[in-house]
Design brief:
The chain is α/β, with parallel strands linked by helices. It has two domains: 215 residues, DHBP synthase (Alpha-Beta Complex); 93 residues, Threonylcarbamoyl-AMP synthase, C-terminal domain (Rossmann fold, 3-Layer(aba) Sandwich). 29% of the residues lie in helices and 20% in strands. Strands 1, 2, 3, 4, 5, 6, 7, 8, 9, 10, 11 and 12 form a twelve-stranded mixed β-sheet that branches. It has a five-stranded parallel β-sheet with strand order 15-14-16-13-17, covered by helices on one side. Strand 11, helix 8 and strand 12 form a beta-alpha-beta unit. The longest helix is centred in the last third of the chain and has 17 residues. It is globular and about 55 Å long. The protein binds threonylcarbamoyladenylate (TXA) and magnesium ion.
Length: 331
């Protein structure tokens, strides 16, 4: 059992020192809250897996506070890496590169690569600079649960298991970073995020999604995608009905009978008599809200959460990806 200190933005010096001492400190980024530990202290990295209950074959993202730290963790950088970094860092783009010997197998999940990113968030950047070391930071939730988009969710999952949390604002994007693998012959998006393939194509025209390629190889390369993710206690059902006339078939589904139901999506809800309805004004708002909504519905004792899928433009692809992973089924 650890005592989890609440840290304000005036405590970033102390928070940096805590990381240097091998402690675990959660902090806001522009995507979701991260749970930080010194990437070069094996004991601290091991404690991250323990605190989250995370399978040890799911590698961690190394977060950098300055550009010169990159060569401490990654080597043989392709020319493309410099162009992407120039354009998208700091920002929600994680690059998978060849790792140096300083990166332990614990960080890389026994792969010979390392995932790195520089978050675009003033608190995260200052903390990383104060820590003076690369910092591993998975999303600050218990493994399998929805990611934390505000500090209250971090405490809900990790109070007593970590040493501190920085009390920042809610995160602005709400979904995890785009993960782009640069170690294959063609750059490959392993996880969709706020930086889309269209944006990346400006810099690397041949980028593709892992889902467009042979699956075995990609699954092996992105171990995190094998595990269940983002799940509330309530059953999550995806509304795939796209009928424009007559009764909406979703309301007739037997799994919805006599249940406490909530809905989140764009536009109008599929039914009028459900307990909670959250129409979002844009796909960005939906993405920002979805994880906190899942957690709030669990607190309300909701039994079924119906989520509408969205068009796959912009962050819509990443949102549909997370909804699909969280879902028990479709209707
Ligand atoms: O936005 C984010 O990326 C957040 C914030 C805190 O920065 N972090 C985050 O970390 O989402 P995590 O641990 O929840 O997800 C890391 C993802 C997993 O899907 C993992 O498999 C993948 O990155 N990953 C890490 N290292 C990898 C590697 N060497 N090769 C391929 N995939 C890797
Ligand atoms: Mg995660």
């Amino acid at each position: 059992m650890r005592i989890t200190q609440r840290l304000s933005i005036d405590d970033l010096g102390l928070a940096g020192e805590m990381l240097r001492r091998g402690q675990l400190v959660a902090f806001p980024t522009e995507t979701v809250y991260g749970l930080g530990a010194d990437a070069f202290q094996p004991e601290a990295v091991r404690n991250i897996y323990l605190a989250k209950g995370r399978p040890s074959d799911n590698p961690l993202i190394v977060h950098l506070g300055s550009f010169d730290q990159l060569t401490e963790v990654a080597m043989d950088l392709p020319a493309l890496a410099a162009r992407l970094i120039d354009r998208f860092w700091p920002g929600p783009l994680t690059l998978v590169l060849r790792k140096t010997d300083r990166v332990s197998d614990l960080v890389s999940g026994n792969l010979n690569t390392v995932a790195v990113r520089m978050p675009n968030h003033p608190i995260a950047l200052e903390l990383l600079q104060r820590a003076q070391t690369p910092v591993v930071a998975p999303s600050a939730n218990r493994s399998g649960r929805p990611s934390a988009t505000h500090w209250q969710s971090v405490l809900e999952d990790l109070e007593g298991r970590i040493d501190g949390v920085i009390l920042g604002e809610s995160t602005s994007i709400g979904l995890e970073s785009t993960v782009l693998d640069l170690t294959q012959s063609v750059p490959c998006i392993l996880r969709a995020g706020a930086i889309t393939a269209e944006e990346l194509r400006d810099v690397c025209p041949d980028v593709r999604h892992a889902s467009e390629t042979s699956h075995e190889n990609e699954l092996r390369k992105s171990p995190g995608t094998r595990h269940r993710h983002y799940q509330p206690t309530a059953m999550v059902l995806l509304d795939c009905a796209r009928t424009s006339h007559g009764a909406h078939p979703i309301t007739k589904d037997p799994r919805l009978l006599h249940k406490k139901i909530a809905w989140i999506g764009l536009g109008n809800p599929p039914a009028l008599d459900w307990l909670v309805m959250e129409p979002c004004s844009s796909v960005e708002v939906y993405a920002r809200r979805v994880y906190a909504f899942f957690r709030e519905m669990d607190h309300l004792g909701i039994e079924v959460i119906v989520c509408s899928l969205v068009d796959e433009a912009g962050i819509g692809l990443a949102l549909n990806d997370r909804l699909n992973r969280a879902a028990n089924d479709r209707i």
